[in-house]
Amino acid sequence: MTEIDVRQKVLAANAAAAQALRSAFAASGTLVVNLISSPGSGKTTLLEATARELKRRLRLGALDGDIATERDAERLRRSGIPARQILTGGACHLDARQVEKALAEEGERFAGLDMLFIENVGNLICPTSYDLGEDFKAVLLSVVEGDDKPFKYPAIFARAAATVITKADLAPHVPFDLEGARQEVAALNPAARFLVLSARTGEGMEAWFALLEEELSRKRSAPVPAALP
Amino acid sequence: MGIAAEIYRIARGVADDRGGGPLESVTVVIGELAAVEPDLLEFAWRATVEGTADAPARLSVDWRAARQVCSRCGEIRERVPGSWLRLCPHCGGPLAVSGGDELDVRTIAFSDAPSAAAGGG
User: Fold this and answer.
1) Which of A164, A175, B4, B14 could form a disulfide with B48 if both were Cys (CB 3.0 to 4.6 A apart)?
2) Which residue of A3, A4, A120, A184 to mutate against B (max B Cβ within 10 Å)?
3) Distance (Å, rounded) from C-alpha A175 to C-alpha A185?
4) Which helix (H) or strand (E) holds A212?
5) Phi, psi of A23 (to 5 degrees)
6) Helix locations, A132-177, DSSP H
């Protein structure tokens, strides 16, 4: 029997593909946001509202990961931005090679964007592990899901540079301890931004748009890609 | 499943590079914040190696807890892995998390007798 000391990152192949994407996004000055949440917490609705507001002054695009159906990409195309569905055929997350392939197939339509939104498969666990070359991960948590989620799914809240509490318009109807959720996120990731908004009513959306535009200008003024965790 | 497949690809590749036979064991290091559940990984591993010459190979998980650290009081010893504290129990100050994001193949062991079936996976 032979024993070998391997010491290799399990996701080294994905990390290499993600690094290639990150270099390409740095060269084109594209801000890339990887949106992660449970199914139904409002990723697509947030992106529809974001498209309506920012497409007037910026070139946006979206990749939508799902197990089945083109529904999310269709919704985003209706809101006026190029959107491409990536069907994972059962896999619960996107990986960097799927993103590379989708962008290569899209070609010009997705070249030189100001912002690219990658809507991951609805899942708070597996997408956490896969770097997609993004500038930062944003995790969405709707008030109807409950305030206990950060400590229950610590990995994503520890890694996401922004936690976005969604469906704030429903907060009066459900027990959601906003301060408790804020403390849990801060304990896992003291540097994380914490936003509370409703894409339906528009409440809190200005802070989200401001965050995106700040990160875009920071990326374009920085000689190296912004190093958000 | 994707993680188990990557672990197998790496382990089999290292054994193949050295002309090794079937895998006997693979040890992985998994941090508490790696978003990988050891029991589920073990299950996925069995499904991955099934039907290959490496089917008997054991997967061992070396699990590493994350640490919560207070900037004033240092590491919080009261913290129980699997649960989290919102604030420092000594001074009420904010906490930071350190470590726990490991996801590495650490060691592999394989039989020296080359197997005709090995390398196909």
Assistant:
1) B4
2) A4
3) 18
4) helix A205-221
5) -65, -40
6) 149-152, 154-159
